[in-house]
From TrEMBL, chain A:
Region described as Disordered: 1-112, 155-186, 211-230, 239-273, 290-317
Biased composition (Basic residues): 24-48
Similarity annotation: Belongs to the RRP15 family.
Domain of life: Eukaryota
The protein's name: RRP15-like protein
The species this protein was found in: Oryza nivara
Biased composition range(s): Low complexity: 1-21, 250-260
Matching InterPro entries: Rrp15 (IPR012459)
From TrEMBL, chain B:
GO molecular function, one term: rRNA binding
Listed name of the protein: Brix domain-containing protein
Ranges annotated as biased composition (Acidic residues): 335-360
Source organism of this protein record: Oryza sativa subsp. indica
GO biological process, one term: rRNA processing
Compositional bias (Gly residues): 10-20
InterPro entries the UniProt entry points to: Brix (IPR007109), PPAN-like (IPR045112)
Length: 317, 360
């Protein structure tokens, strides 16, 4: 480092002495070119000098001094070898230029150096930025200070947008909960259910035909037929009664048949003709009647379809 | 108050006429008495003299549209003894319905609710309970079922009579289900096999208990009777009442003898044939055998029994068995009941507890 800086102070006075005003130009040019080769930065440095160029051209052809060439070589070597060295060398050069610019071109040279300095700072900053490892951000590298704010705002927007669609969908899903649209074909389960239901209907129809066949042609609403029916059932009732006379005290559940027939025997088949039709406690407290009726109905109607179905179908299972 | 369009079946019209006719003699019946009597007549079956169960199907709280459709479907199931166009308002509470149900003779409530967006169905007896709360695990509307069928059949006449109820799979089960069976049995008018007309049996409500999954399957079918051994062409000829298309035939006899598509699947359902007691229609005569065909009309529900309460949407919880303090309290009550019901032991045995509790 010291060896690099040492020759410069020596060289500059000599250059200033030797080639009064041309020298700085000549010396500058190769240096710029060398740098341009390195990083393509020389072109920038060249632009402010363009105005001088036409005048400079003939002079450029004159051979530079050995010393100057040596210096150039050294600089090139330095430049290629290390960045940090280069920086120091440049700063040294600046100083030297300042010192050297006593003559007419000092203004132009100052502009160049200032630009170069800015350039260097830019380069350093740029390389630093490029070397920086960026997080994998979908927003991309945003240098603004508002980066966080922007991100927050975008996230907020997205959040606001999402609940609208999602909320609606959720609401719909909730409304449709449990709603199952059946398939076109009947699966085995449905077929089985239909089978059970069919069995139930068959049983009901059979029981109805059994109950109605014997009294076919007799209309219980006609008094004549009602008498015949009563006679018919009376005998059955009496035989049934003699059988179960000892059990009659125990309860109604013992014999459905007798209960059913006794009703038939005592009363006409059509309800309005009965003595008790719509009379008595039945109407006053109908709710009580209903609950007590539950007991009666159970025993009264032996062929109540549901009860029949239930036990009949359960037994094979 | 709930606005009610109550559809009276045959009971309403006939009963009303009788009451007024009596009043036109010497003594004129006061209007209020006549009205009461008329109302009472409407609640009783004219032939058997049994009380006709009537129902309200309504909802509490806001329901999504699919559940509203389910509500309407349930009303159609419960026809004719239900209010098809029952309008409820937000400010109607349960008490309003109970107050209306008394004079109208409504005995059963079906309440659809949607708490935390899981549909529930409460079946209750008015005015004193019990209440059965079901969770509707799955359901399909009548429209969905009609869409899934190639040839949906749902003539409006079948809703003029109440459905038959077939319960299956409930045999030999414990307490909550025993009373539930009773409830279902009295949900629709009981059928007296001696007086019933077969032509009124056009719908069937199947309530099937799946023991493995503890689910209650609710299905609704229409009953169709077809004469056995009659070809499709003859059947159509009888049904349509139209002159058949004989253009392509050489002889009239061809119409009968020519084989159809051969799609008759009557071979398999030997079990589904019945001999009818009386004539149902032109085709299904008493002397002939008929095959029973069921076609689903919906709605379809899969229910899970969640809770049983002694009162109408209130009172003691009978199922699931309460634990801790409540359980002790309930036990005490049960003991009381037993001592009370000593004299008629048979009744207690045959009947179910919730009913008795409501009676107290």
């Amino acid at each position: 480092m010291a060896s690099a800086t040492a020759p410069q102070p020596v060289s500059s006075p000599s250059a200033a002495a030797g080639a009064a005003s041309n020298n700085p130009h000549k010396r500058k040019k190769p240096a710029a070119r060398g740098k341009g080769k390195g990083k393509g930065k020389g072109r920038l440095a060249k632009t402010p000098r363009r105005s001088d160029d036409p005048g400079d051209l003939p002079r450029r052809r004159s051979k530079p001094s050995d010393r100057f060439l040596k210096l150039l070589r050294k600089r090139a070597r330095d430049y290629n070898s290390d960045d940090s060295d280069d920086e120091e060398r440049l700063s040294d050069e600046d100083e030297e230029e300042e010192g050297a610019s006593g003559s007419g071109d000092d203004e132009a040279a100052g502009a160049v150096t200032r630009f170069e300095q800015g350039c260097r700072a830019f380069r350093v900053a740029f390389t630093k930025i490029m070397a920086k490892k960026l997080p994998d951000d979908p927003l991309g590298p945003i240098l603004s200070a508002h980066k966080k704010l922007v991100a927050a705002k975008l996230a907020e927007d997205a959040e606001e947008h999402k609940p609208k669609g999602e909320g609606r969908r959720e609401k719909r899903m909730a409304a449709e909960k449990g709603h199952v649209i059946p398939t076109n074909h009947l699966d085995s389960k449905e077929k089985e259910l239909i089978k059970i239901a069919t069995q139930g209907v068959v049983r009901l129809f059979n029981s109805v035909s059994k109950a109605q066949n014997c009294r076919k042609g007799l209309n219980p609403s006609r008094s004549k037929d009602a008498k015949v029916l009563a006679k018919e059932t009376k005998q059955a009732f009496l035989t049934e009664l003699s059988k179960t006379s000892n059990q009659s005290q125990k309860g109604k559940a013992s014999s459905n048949f007798s209960k059913n027939n006794s009703k038939d025997e005592d009363e006409p088949g059509w309800a309005p003709l009965r003595e008790t039709y719509m009379l008595g406690s039945k109407l006053k407290d109908w709710d009580k009647m209903q609950t007590s009726d539950v007991v009666n109905e159970q025993t009264e109607i032996p062929l109540d379809d549901s009860s029949d179905e239930e036990y009949a179908i359960d037994s094979p299972e | 108050m709930a606005r009610v369009h109550h559809k009276n079946g045959r009971g309403g019209g006939g009963g009303g006429g009788g009451g007024k006719g009596k009043g036109k003699g010497k003594w004129k019946m006061p209007a209020s008495v006549a009205r009461k009597q008329q109302a009472a007549m409407a609640n009783v079956d004219q032939v058997t003299g049994d009380k006709i169960p009537k129902s309200f199907v309504f909802s509490r709280g806001k329901l999504p549209s699919t559940l509203r459709h389910l509500q309407q479907d349930l009303r159609k199931v419960m026809l004719p003894y239900t209010a098809l166009n029952l309008k409820e308002k937000k400010r109607n509470n349960l008490k309003d319905f109970v107050n209306v149900s008394g004079p109208l003779g409504v005995t059963h409530f079906f309440i659809l609710t949607n708490p935390k967006s899981s549909p529930h169905l409460r079946m209750a007896k008015t005015p004193q309970g019990p209440t059965y709360t079901f969770q509707i695990k799955e359901y399909a509307l009548a429209a969905d079922i009609a869409n899934s069928q190639k040839r949906p059949r749902c003539p409006p006449e079948i809703f003029k009579n109440s459905p038959l109820t077939v319960l299956s799979g409930f045999g030999g089960l414990g307490e909550p289900f025993k009373s539930l069976v009773e409830y279902f049995r009295h949900m629709t008018p009981a059928i007296d096999p001696v007086t019933v007309k077969l032509s009124t049996c056009q719908r069937i409500l199947l309530i099937h208990f799946d023991r493995e999954k503890e689910m209650i399957n609710f299905r609704h079918y229409s009953i169709k009777l077809q004469p056995v051994g009659v070809t499709r062409k003859i059947r159509k000829l009888m049904q349509n009442n139209q002159v058949p298309d004989l253009r392509d035939l050489n002889d009239v006899s061809d119409y009968v003898t020519k084989a159809g598509y051969g799609s008759e699947s009557e071979v398999d359902d030997e079990a589904a044939t019945v001999s009818l007691a009386s004539d149902v229609d032109k085709l299904n005569r008493a002397s002939r055998k008929s095959a029973i065909r069921l076609q689903e009309i919906g709605p379809r529900m899969k229910l899970h029994l969640v809770k049983v309460e002694a009162g109408l949407c209130s009172g003691d919880v009978l199922y699931p068995q309460p634990v801790g303090k409540e359980g002790l309290g309930k036990k005490g009550k049960e003991v009381e009941e037993e001592t009370e019901g000593q004299e008629d032991e048979d009744l207690m045995e045959s009947d179910d507890d919730p009913e008795d509790e409501s009676e107290e």
